[in-house]
Design brief:
By secondary structure, the protein is an alpha/beta fold. Helix content is about 30%, strand content about 25%. The protein folds into two domains: about 250 residues, DD-peptidase/beta-lactamase superfamily (Beta-lactamase, 3-Layer(aba) Sandwich); about 220 residues, D-tyrosyl-trna(Tyr) Deacylase, Chain: A, CATH 3.50.80.20. β18 and β19 form a beta hairpin. α3 packs parallel to α10 and α10 packs across α11.
């Protein structure tokens, strides 16, 4: 097979340096690559001339490098310092003599993807506690009404239609809501015992998220192969698969099926604990089929971090939720339609307007979680080169990418000295998919953009990553 691959390369890739050719040949000759597809494009950013190409127009599943398209569109169209606002207020009127509100406490969602997120604890602090104080300062001691979260900024289809069923109930498959909170996820804690035993649920955190749980898990081995299954707005959740044996506190993170309603319940409980009595049950704009634009009196608000900070976390930690929020926000901001479809339309127009060849690029979501997404390595490399030409936006875009061997999803990879303080990239991974896209400099000082996508390999992904590392190392050395 090695001779055949070498012959093909000599015909179609005469421009490759020997080291690069040998690295690619070695990867393709590996037994795990039988039946696999590879797309590679490395461009010199100064003139977009190819330094290395292989099947660069082949359309493949990209996984999480899809987030680079979402990040680029959001930075260019919304701006580095764009932020989201969540407003707190009430409807109705307050009787100052009795300190009674005849109306509802309203939490008006503004599409903030990271309200209360673990990633931004310092930014938000005890935001909910400040809201309770604001309502008390407004002179409210009793509410003849309910706590209602207005989640109407976006549509009520939280999950892109192309997502896989086994992903949706887990934290990385959390849906997007007009009011999202706490990364739209919660923890299920287990105590596991010997091989083949049923794990014991010890607690759910926060407890208010507790759905009707069906536990079909088994304790087995040392790897986490447990999955949570649920659907948006559903009350029922079940778990299946295996989780490691003999763990005193093993945690599965699951997606909250109705974050706006959960948050309404949390605020209602906090108001009650603060001595503000509420007569009605918590609810949401979706459930009530109404909005609260006209009858709304604001008492406080909280702003999100700037977009550049959100995108940095999104790319460093590969947060799917943030990417899907940005798609809907693009639709809302540009077309006044807070839908995934509108956001994708905006992104495709952005790509076309930027001179990117969109042939072979198919977008189903903003995060890359859908296996229906597809792109070419050339299209991605061209986008990275395009972003390099805008110094103002490029700084935020570049800084959002993990450093090789040091941070985020690249922390344990690209450890060769050739990559040290030189390569930044976004990684992508799902079953039988590995991809990388980003920037580096050659030893001669040339600035390069690159994209490498591998689909449908078998066996360990570590060999695939080593092969990708070797191709990039040789490019750095030989150019």
């Amino acid at each position: 097979m090695g001779k055949k691959v070498s012959f093909i390369l000599l015909i179609f890739l005469p421009q490759l340096a020997y080291g690069q050719q040998k690295a690619l040949e070695s990867l393709l000759a590996d037994s795990s690559m039988k039946g696999a597809s590879v797309s590679i494009c490395i461009l010199n950013t100064s003139d977009n001339i190819s330094a290395f190409e292989f099947n660069s127009d082949k359309s493949l599943t990209p996984a999480s490098i899809q987030k680079l398209i979402t990040a680029a569109a959001a930075l260019k169209l919304l701006g580095d310092d764009y932020f989201f606002t969540t407003q707190e207020g009430y409807s109705g009127t307050i009787d100052r003599k009795t300190a009674t509100l005849s109306g509802n406490i309203i939490i008006k969602g503004g599409g903030d993807p990271c309200l209360g997120s673990e990633y931004f604890k310092d930014h938000y602090g005890n935001f909910a506690g400040k809201w309770i104080t604001a309502f008390k300062n407004a002179g409210i001691k009793k509410v003849k009404g309910s706590v209602i979260t207005d989640d109407s900024r976006y549509d009520y289809q939280p999950v892109p239609s192309g997502w896989v069923w086994e992903d949706i109930g887990n934290y990385y498959g959390a849906g997007v809501y007009g009011l999202s909170v706490f990364d739209n996820s919660y923890e299920i804690h287990f105590r596991t015992s010997a091989e083949g035993t049923v794990p014991v649920i010890t607690k759910v955190n926060p407890g208010i998220c507790m759905p009707e749980l069906s536990n079909m898990l088994t304790s087995s081995g040392t790897n986490d192969k447990g999955y949570v299954f649920s659907a948006p707005y559903n009350k029922y959740t079940w778990m299946t698969g295996t989780i490691p044996v003999n763990e005193p506190d093993f945690i599965l993170r699951a997606s909250i099926t109705d974050p706006p309603l959960i948050f309404a319940k949390i605020i209602s409980q906090m108001l009650d604990s603060a001595g503000i009595a509420i007569t009605g049950e918590p609810s949401t704009a979706r459930i009530l089929k109404r909005q609260f634009d006209n009858d709304f009196n604001a008492v406080d608000l909280v702003k999100s971090p700037p977009l550049k900070d959100i995108i940095k976390i999104m790319n460093h930690e590969s947060v799917n939720l943030y990417a899907e929020h940005l798609v809907k926000e693009l639709g809302k901001a540009v077309m006044d339609k807070g839908t995934t479809a509108a956001g994708i339309e905006v992104i495709l127009k952005f790509l076309s307007g930027s001179g990117i060849n969109t042939g072979g690029i198919f977008i189903e979501d903003g995060s890359g979680l859908s296996p229906k997404n597809a792109m070419t390595s050339k299209g991605m490399a061209e986008l990275l080169s395009f972003m390099k030409k805008d110094p103002e936006k490029f700084s935020s875009f570049y800084n959002s990418l993990p450093e090789a061997g040091k941070a985020g999803t690249l922390k344990y990879y690209f450890k060769d000295p050739a990559f040290d303080s030189n390569l930044r990239a976004k990684s992508g991974s799902m079953t039988r998919v590995r991809s990388y896209a980003g920037y580096f400099k050659t030893t001669s000082g040339k600035e390069m953009t690159f994209c490498i996508i591998v689909n449908n390999f078998s066996g360990s992904h570590h060999r695939i990553i080593r092969g990708i590392e070797e191709i990039l190392r040789e490019t750095i050395i030989m150019n």
